[in-house]
């Protein structure tokens, strides 16, 4: 089954400028939107999942370009190796909340401490992973270059300092992360990057091509792309699209689509 009713991109959002750095004003607007839409109850499990996981959608300015940090999972990992994902993973017994788990995993994978991340809210509802044995809870945050700037009017429209992507790359977990890259917000509205797809075979959304954004090129996807190729949606959980091109799709693509839909970039 093909995607007959594709989502559309407006090419702009009323809450941020696609081509200008995020500011305190834009972060406040994003937080208010997330608070006014969906939030999930951490006490309600989904179906009979055996475990729980949490991910962070990390907004960041890089070289004064607003965007989202994404990672390519390490090639030696047992699941979804070489695929695109947000930082995140299984909730441990020592985690005090799903948000705490998302922050811990971000520190372990990308070396970004919780003190540099400003949580803006949640996007959801949470979804089961492809194997239906894990409930995945998504959070949205902004990665500050230093400690978060106080939220007051004198800094409302000043561009927030950019992260040093090279410095982040020096601190990633070599076993868990093969590459880190920055997906500009403007790319989320670029027709040449968007491919109409179906999440779980029936929910339309955009998959996003990112192959050219990966430093030193994308991992070898030839064998995996043949296995995951599908006309009706996402056979893989996250990462490698049709024809061997690296894409943000599956659960990662779905959460990114939900966020951009909340922020009115997509309709």
From TrEMBL:
UniProt domain Nudix hydrolase: residue ranges: 50-209
Organism superkingdom: Eukaryota
UniProt KW Transport keyword: no
PROSITE patterns for this protein: NUDIX
Cofactor needs: Mn(2+); Mg(2+)
GO annotation, biological process: coenzyme A catabolic process
Any one GO molecular-function label of the UniProt entry: coenzyme A diphosphatase activity
SUPFAM superfamilies according to UniProt: Nudix
The protein's name: NUDIX hydrolase domain-like protein
Membrane-spanning ranges: none
Chain intervals for the UniProt region annotation (Disordered): 216-237
């Amino acid at each position: 089954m093909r995607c007959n009713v594709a989502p559309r991109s407006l090419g702009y959002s009323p809450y941020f400028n696609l081509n200008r750095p995020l500011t305190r004003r834009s972060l406040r607007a994003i937080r208010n939107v997330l608070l006014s839409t969906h939030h999930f109850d951490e006490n309600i499990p989904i179906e009979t999942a055996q475990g729980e996981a949490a991910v962070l959608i990390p907004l960041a300015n890089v070289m004064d370009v607003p965007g989202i940090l994404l990672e390519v999972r390490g090639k030696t990992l047992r699941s979804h190796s070489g695929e695109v994902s947000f930082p995140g993973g299984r909730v441990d017994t020592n985690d005090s909340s799903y948000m705490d788990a998302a922050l811990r995993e971000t520190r372990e994978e990308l070396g970004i401490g919780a003190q540099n991340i400003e949580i803006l809210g949640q996007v959801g509802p949470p979804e089961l992973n492809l194997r239906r044995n894990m409930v995945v809870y998504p959070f949205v945050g902004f990665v500050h270059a230093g400690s978060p700037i106080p939220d007051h009017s004198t800094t409302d429209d000043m561009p927030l300092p950019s992260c040093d992507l090279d410095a982040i790359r020096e601190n990633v977990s070599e076993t868990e992360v093969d590459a880190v890259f920055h997906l500009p917000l403007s790319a989320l509205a670029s027709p040449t990057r968007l491919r109409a797809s179906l999440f779980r075979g029936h929910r339309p959304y955009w998959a996003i091509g990112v192959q050219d954004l990966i430093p030193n090129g994308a991992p070898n996807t030839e064998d995996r792309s043949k296995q995951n190729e599908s006309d009706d949606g996402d056979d893989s959980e996250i990462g490698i699209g049709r024809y061997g091109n690296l894409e943000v799709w599956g659960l990662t693509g779905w959460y990114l689509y939900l966020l951009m839909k909340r922020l009115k970039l997509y309709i």
